[in-house]
Design goal:
Blueprint (H helix, E strand, L loop, with lengths): L2 E4 L3 H4 E11 L3 H10 L7 E5 L2 E5 L21 E4 L2 H11 L4 E11 L2 E11 L2 H24 L1
Antiparallel strand pairs: 1-6, 2-5, 2-7, 3-4, 4-5, 6-7
Length: 149
Amino acid sequence: MKIFAENKNAHFEYEILDAYEAGIELKGFEVKSIVSHGANLRSVYATIKNGEVWLLNLDIPPYQPKNGPEKYDSKRSRKLLLNKSEIAELMGKIKEKGLTLVPLKMYNKGSKIKLEIGLARNKKKWDKREDIKKREMTKEIRREVKFRN
């Protein structure tokens, strides 16, 4: 399994409650572009419209800029492929206050490109500070152990 893109900021900004694996409706040249250049998951989010899950603001640059299709919109909305039961479950949970769908990583599974999306809640400022403190403490412990050996 090769990871093409990862949203590292998502775990810092959000508390991930649940994760789902979804397929993405892509065009052939977009698949080639993701495999060769990757994609940018920062500032990307998912929403539910008319019983379908859509990924908004995903930037996939053209595979060959000079030889690509005319009027290609690299940030077009892309449909996520989930089971109806998963979509119904997400619709129920999204109605709760403060929950959102955030993409976590894009990877291949066999010959398909999959996207892991997380049901997330915004972290408070003190939660972020706590994460930073934990990270600093683990760095300090590693330095001490390395120094003593």
